[in-house]
Amino acid sequence: MEPNTSGSDPSGINASDSCCTMSLEKMKVLVADKLHHYAGKLAETATEHADCSVAQHGKLASEWLEKSADYVRHFDYEETNAKVRNSVKQHPGRALLIAGTAGLVIGAICRRR
To answer: Is the pTM of this model over 0.85?
Structure first.
């Protein structure tokens, strides 16, 4: 997060940054709620078909979705952003290699479509 250089906001946060953070928080809640909802539906379906051998896998998938919902709900964007920035500063060559590889993979996937 870049500091506010205009001097109008003593917190050092740009208005656009706080707006993006609010949108990110709303998105986190929305995604977590959807994951939780579908985990519940999957668990319900697995319980209804308990005699089926696939029901165990449905229950396991439901638990994974529930864990994913908790992870998304408690994900701290700012902390992760700081960790990534610090890692890039400490290992710029590795960061460029990873970014280049990701770009090649995404480019190859997009080219096939």
So the answer is: no
